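Work Package 3 (structural annotation) set out to generate three-dimensional models for the target panel prioritized at the project kickoff. During this period the team completed the workflow that converts sequence records into C-alpha cells, so that structures can be stored uniformly alongside our sequence database. As a representative example, we reproduce one entry of 164 residues exactly as it appears in the project archive.
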Amino acid sequence: MSDEATTPETTTTEAPVTETTADELPQWARDSLTKANDEAAKARIKAGKAEEKARLEITSEYETKLSTLSDEKSAITAELNAAHLDGMRLRAALSAGIPGESVVEFAELLKGETQEDLTAHAEKVKGLMGSQKPKVVDRSQGLGCGTASPADGFGLFINSRLSK
C-alpha cells in the first residue's frame, strides 16, 4: 500500500447564466417594466416632496419656538443685569454714608457700570450735595425784636401793651 492518498477530482458543471436584455423580452413584459419604473419614479418624487414639506413645516415651527425662547432669554438677561446694577448702586450709596430713607433716590442718581465707578460717583455726588449751605433765615427781620419765634414775639407785644 502506498502512503499517498488520492483525491478524486470533482467537476461541477454550472448552468450558463444568460442575461436577457430588454430587446429579448416580449412587448407585454417591457410595457409592464416601463409602467413599474414610471410608478416607482413618481413614488420617489412624491416621497421627496412630502419629505421637503415636512422638513419645512418642522423647521419653521422650531425656528419660531427658538426665536421666542431667545427673546425671553434676552429679556430675562436684561432684567438680571438691571437688578445687578441696582444692587451695586445701592451698595455704593450706602458705602457713601447716605441715610437709609433717601438711599434709593440717591442710588438712582448714580452713573457707572462697575462698582468702582458707582462708588466714585456716589462720593462725588455726596460732595456736591454736602457743599450746598443751608439757607440762613433771620427770624428777627420784620419782627422788631430779637425773639426766637413769632409766638414769643407776640407774647412780648401783648405784655408790653398791657403793662402801660
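The chain has four helices and no strands.
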